[in-house]
Design the sequence.
């Protein structure tokens, strides 16, 4: 405590001296006080007061040296702390820890287990929960992670599911997500190299590895830092010699089993439990007090209301439902505990009893759900499948899974109530999270196989096609520049399903090449390119260009084999690949292929010219070649503008790019002719009259480009009026972007533009304020943190170095803030 107080006093005193030094420096450099200073020094000389004079010189030299030393580190010296804060902020996002499948009031009989779990993590760094499938290990871990009494012990909690992903890939992914995009983690990076990145936290963190199938892959690869706690859940009977501390989760007691069953029943049925307690006890005994079986039984009783009947059915059909494939999922062999096999068989038996009176539409939807990766699924994805199925058989009732497919929803799926309506910004709808238990998924897969075996092989192709079509449609509609907060939703809930769809498309080639033929009545048809592009858009938005290129190259290979190198989809793929690589040879190849196969006036050829121009403009700074490419694109779009609104829009936007290239070539007259043209004025009026985000984004881009035009011309002609116009247009662009994009990259672009304009106007405090707002956005965004952020920091430091008084105020505030924290 004394050290902290001393440190705080030090920073306060240092801040006072810095402020005094700033005042002295300003006085010495001021023309207003020049005569006064001369008289002051003259009096010093006459009085022979050299001691004070030397002290003053020494103080100035000391302040200047301190300034030179620290200004070289401004913006970079604190970057480690900034990155730590950023990673901790991401870590605290709830999407990293799935919410429990049942409300806490329905979570019965685990008070002692959850306390032992907490004690185990307090006493050891690595702790394991062991137990048979369905006993509730994952649920126990989720309840622990979301219990406020325990959660406050950790700065953050991360959940890594090993059901569909191995340990090292899962660790690389989340490490990349926490520290991206500065961290380049390839396939050859070890777990130790990943954990080394976590050293920056130095705060208690809980990492949960759920459903570990192989303890050997964890050996010697778990973190050594004592503040990183590791919780492992596994159905394995043994944890391995290096995980010495574990708790075996057993089935529930009779009392807890009855309470769990009652909590999942309607009030009237729950009352019957008390009046018919013996049949209830017998049923719970029959199910071995296994939680997953009890929840399934409650759904059967909810619909059929007979405890005894269910028990008789279970005994009559014993041993019919557990096949070798199901056993292999949990690494259970025929010699394993027979009691475990019997309980799992009875659980699947209950699912089968609930299956018989489902409608054909509900069964078809269940077949589609069997393709999903297990875990949490956004409800709107399932609603998309429900809509397709409803339309195919002329349903006239709501297609929402909750209402149109009520039996399927209530019997097999669950939704945590506290996750409803959590996020809607990028997807424009309320989101309901649906839990698909691995055992339910296994049951759905089994039913799909049985259905296919009864009919022709075409049936499985139809169900796979339905799944891939919906995921392609979702992928097509993913935003190119998603809101940052949407990245985590996409990462955990959408991208895994799109990857499943792409895998199905590739594995079913060449038959999958015709899956989407004649299936779409939308204005923009869904294509086989879309699911691949959904993954490319996501990984590119997340700053993972290596992953994006990998999926784009797999797409190229699939489309080439399916359709050949002259097909439109394949040529679109070449254009996308060029944009990812951002190299001249790829653009040349795409342009050559499009021109030869589609013609020089095709819209795709125009798009490649436009992207080629952006490459020369942004990457190469070759404005002459950029102008040539933009002119070619405008010529092509001009021929398409009359026939389509999209062609007209692309033409105007390309003309804006052309005008910017003209500005950098000092052809301001040509640029001004376009900016003042009646055509652009009409387009602006159309955009202003629209409330759509797309139209407003286009309008803000025009305002941004106009600001850039006046700013660049002011640099050439030193006209104050042009700087004033530039600031006016830039503020208008910023206002629109802040309304629709909030703290996103486009907002940072406008802030940076205003900072440059303000600095040129000698409005230095305003410029500094704009930089201060733009820099955190660039730093936090995975697409710009290793590109635009360093260059913007360099600009900012240059401004501070050219105007020392700004630096001293900046440094003084930094010291004061540090003093407060100390």
Sequence:
């Amino acid at each position: 405590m004394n050290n902290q107080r001393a440190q705080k006093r030090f920073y306060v005193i240092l801040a006072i001296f810095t402020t005094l030094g700033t005042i002295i420096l300003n006085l010495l450099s001021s023309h207003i006080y020049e005569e006064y200073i001369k008289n002051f020094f003259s009096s010093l000389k006459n009085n022979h007061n050299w001691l004070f004079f030397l002290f003053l010189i020494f103080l100035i030299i000391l302040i200047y040296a301190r300034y030179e030393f620290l200004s070289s580190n401004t913006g970079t010296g604190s970057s480690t702390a900034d990155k730590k804060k950023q990673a901790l902020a991401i870590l605290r996002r709830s999407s990293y820890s799935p919410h429990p499948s049942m409300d806490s009031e329905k979570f019965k009989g685990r008070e002692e287990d959850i306390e032992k779990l907490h004690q185990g993590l307090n006493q050891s760094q690595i702790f394991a929960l062991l137990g048979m499938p369905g006993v509730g290990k994952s649920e126990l871990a989720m309840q622990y992670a979301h219990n406020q009494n325990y959660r406050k012990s950790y700065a953050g909690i991360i959940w890594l599911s090993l059901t569909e992903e191995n340990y090292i890939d899962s660790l690389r992914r989340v490490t990349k997500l926490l520290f991206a995009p500065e961290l380049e983690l390839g396939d050859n990076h070890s777990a130790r190299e990943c954990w080394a990145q976590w050293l920056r936290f130095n705060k208690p963190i809980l990492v949960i590895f759920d459903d570990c199938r192989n303890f050997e892959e964890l050996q010697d690869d778990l973190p050594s830092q004592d503040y990183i706690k590791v919780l492992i859940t596994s159905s394995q009977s043994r944890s391995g010699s290096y995980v010495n501390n574990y708790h075996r989760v057993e089935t529930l007691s009779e009392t807890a089993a009855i309470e769990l069953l009652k909590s999942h029943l309607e009030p009237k049925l729950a009352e019957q439990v008390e009046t018919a307690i013996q049949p209830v006890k017998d049923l719970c005994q029959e199910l071995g007090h296994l939680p997953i079986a009890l929840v399934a039984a409650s759904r059967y009783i909810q619909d059929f209301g007979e405890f005894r009947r269910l028990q008789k059915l279970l005994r009559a059909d014993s041993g019919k439902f557990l096949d070798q494939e199901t056993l292999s999922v949990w690494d259970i062999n025929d010699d394993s505990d027979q009691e475990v096999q019997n309980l799992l068989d009875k659980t699947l038996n209950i699912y089968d009893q609930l299956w018989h009176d489902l409608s054909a539409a509900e069964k078809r939807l269940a077949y589609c759900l069997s393709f999903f990766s297990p875990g949490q699924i956004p409800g709107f994805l399932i609603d998309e499948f429900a809509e397709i199925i409803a339309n195919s058989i002329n349903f006239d009732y709501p297609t929402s899974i909750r209402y149109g497919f009520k039996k399927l929803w209530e019997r097999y799926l669950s939704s945590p109530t506290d996750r409803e309506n959590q996020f809607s910004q990028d997807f424009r709808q309320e989101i309901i999270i649906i839990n698909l238990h691995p055992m339910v998924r296994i049951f759905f897969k089994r039913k799909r196989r049985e259905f296919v075996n009864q009919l022709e092989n075409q049936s499985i192709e139809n169900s796979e096609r339905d799944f891939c079509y919906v995921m392609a449609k979702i992928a097509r509609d993913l935003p190119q520049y998603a809101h940052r907060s949407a990245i985590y939703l996409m990462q955990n809930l959408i991208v895994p399903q799109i990857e499943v769809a792409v895998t199905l498309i590739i594995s079913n080639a060449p038959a999958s090449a015709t899956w989407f033929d004649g299936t779409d009545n939308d204005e923009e048809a869904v294509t086989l390119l879309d699911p691949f592009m959904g993954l490319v858009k996501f990984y590119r938005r997340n700053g993972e260009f290596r992953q994006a290129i990998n999926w784009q190259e797999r797409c190229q290979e699939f489309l080439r084999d399916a359709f050949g190198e002259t097909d439109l989809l394949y040529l679109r793929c070449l254009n996308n690949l060029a944009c990812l690589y951002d190299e001249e040879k790829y653009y040349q190849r795409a342009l050559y292929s499009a021109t030869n196969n589609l013609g020089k006036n095709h819209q795709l050829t125009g798009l490649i010219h436009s992207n080629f121009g952006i490459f020369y403009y942004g990457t190469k700074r070759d404005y002459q070649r950029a102008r040539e490419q933009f002119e070619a694109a405008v010529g092509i779009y001009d021929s398409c503008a009359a026939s389509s609104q999209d062609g007209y829009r692309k033409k105007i936007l390309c003309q804006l790019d052309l005008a910017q290239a003209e500005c950098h070539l000092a052809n301001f007259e040509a640029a001004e002719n376009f900016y003042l043209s009646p055509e652009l004025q009409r387009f602006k009026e159309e955009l202003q009259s629209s409330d759509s985000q797309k139209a407003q984004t286009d309008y803000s881009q025009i305002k941004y480009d106009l600001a850039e035009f006046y700013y660049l011309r002011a640099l050439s002609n030193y006209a104050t009026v042009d700087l004033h116009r530039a600031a006016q247009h830039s503020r208008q662009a910023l206002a629109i972007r802040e309304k629709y994009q909030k703290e996103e990259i486009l907002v940072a672009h406008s802030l940076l533009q205003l900072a440059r304009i303000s600095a040129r106007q000698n409005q230095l405090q305003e410029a500094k304020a704009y930089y201060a707002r733009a820099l955190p956005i660039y730093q936090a965004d995975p697409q710009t943190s290793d590109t635009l952020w360093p260059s913007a920091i360099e600009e900012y430091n240059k401004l501070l170095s050219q105007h020392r008084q700004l630096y001293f105020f900046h440094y003084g505030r930094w010291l004061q803030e540090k003093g407060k924290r100390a």
In short: Residues 28-33, 68-78, 418-429, 818-822 have pLDDT under 50 and may be disordered. The CA atoms of residues 21 and 60 lie 7 Å apart. The first helix runs from residue 2 to 28. DSSP finds 37 helices and seven strands in the chain.
